[in-house]
């Protein structure tokens, strides 16, 4: 075993390590120069076969060479690892100071999803969605609904009048519809009874924008015209609606009221879905949602006035109908504890975001 040969093996190993350009190449060089079949491993194995006097010198020679090779491997490995880490840091760097460049996912406004949720209750019962124009003939908005020209009820809803061509009905003026009830009249004129329609939509009144009013708001209206419909059908439908939206133990109550287009007419209230009426006369359990009244006012309803049926071509001797309508903003307010209606119209995402990303 010649020292020059051992030195050559050592130097070849060192040169191979130095030439390795990355950690994979270094690993290959390691196997070739220190693995079980490498020249130095074979030389090590030969020591056993040497005469006793030569063993110590040969052992020292091979041991030193293997030590130098292992040391060189460790040093080159550390070098290549440091290079790799530095490269990864540059290649995969994230500049956390860059502006946020993803367009945030959009979602529909809570008023829209609320209105659809209510409409869906009726669609699942077989009602059809009906729509009408927001710029409406005065005839549909008032006359067809039994508001006579000088009827004081016309003043109940302060109206935006629109200049322009008259609407579909002769001399009638044009208004921004003050409620969704004109869609009732359109639905009856467009269809043969039985009629089961739900009419969601935007309506307009000259109300000032404040915590509980907005000049542009949303209503949803229901109309059923069929043979033999009674107030009991109306009440059952209202109860089903509040149970679908607020829970199985909910109910509604009716209080006498007046609308020109329904007779009899009623104001409809629903049981307060928070306290279920338990806050009434119970100062230990006050309820903010219903102001401890036990009921929440929802909107108007009644049996379709036979005069309206006649105006819309429906025979009141054969058919009867019920209708109801209410404001979506008010429902969103008490369902989600919104204190100020202005938040719904100002378009600030800090208001809409907590409602989630329902689309
Ligand atoms: C009507 O508009 C009737 N058309 C409802 C109706 C339909 C009665 C069918 C009978 C049969 P009223 O004017 O009360 O009714 O308005 C209904 C609801 O609209 C109110 O209960 C309220 O929730 C909502 N509302 C009225 N004015 C505003 C406003 N300025 N801002 C927000 N919501 C309003």
Write the layout of secondary structure elements.
Blueprint lengths: L2 H17 L3 H12 L4 H8 L5 H40 L18 H14 L4 E2 L5 E3 H4 L19 E2 L11 E3 L4 H10 L4 E10 L11 E11 L4 H16 L5 E8 L2 E10 L23 E10 L1 H6 L8 E8 H8 L6 H4 L3 H4 L7
Parallel strand pairs: 1-5
Antiparallel strand pairs: 2-4, 3-4, 5-6, 6-10, 7-8, 8-9, 9-10
Helix pairs in contact: 1-2, 1-4, 2-4, 5-10
Bound molecules: adenosine-5'-[phenylalaninyl-phosphate].
Q: What descriptors fit this protein?
A:
2 domains; 12 helices; 359 residues; rod-shaped; binds adenosine-5'-[phenylalaninyl-phosphate]; three-stranded antiparallel β-sheet; BirA Bifunctional Protein, domain 2
Mean pLDDT: 91
Q: Which molecules are bound in this entry?
A: adenosine-5'-[phenylalaninyl-phosphate]
Radius of gyration: 42 Å
Major β-sheet strand ordering: 1-5-6-10-9-8-7
Secondary-structure element sequence? HHHHHEEHEEHEEHEEEHEHHH
Quaternary state, please?
single chain
Major beta sheet, specifics? 7 strands, mixed
Strand content: 15-25%
Quickly count the helices: 12
Shape: rod-shaped
CATH topology of the largest domain: BirA Bifunctional Protein, domain 2
Number of domains: 2
**Class of the largest domain in CATH?**
Alpha Beta
Organism: Streptomyces olivochromogenes
Main location: cytoplasm
Pfam family, one: tRNA-synt_2d
Family: Belongs to the class-II aminoacyl-tRNA synthetase family. Phe-tRNA synthetase alpha subunit type 1 subfamily.
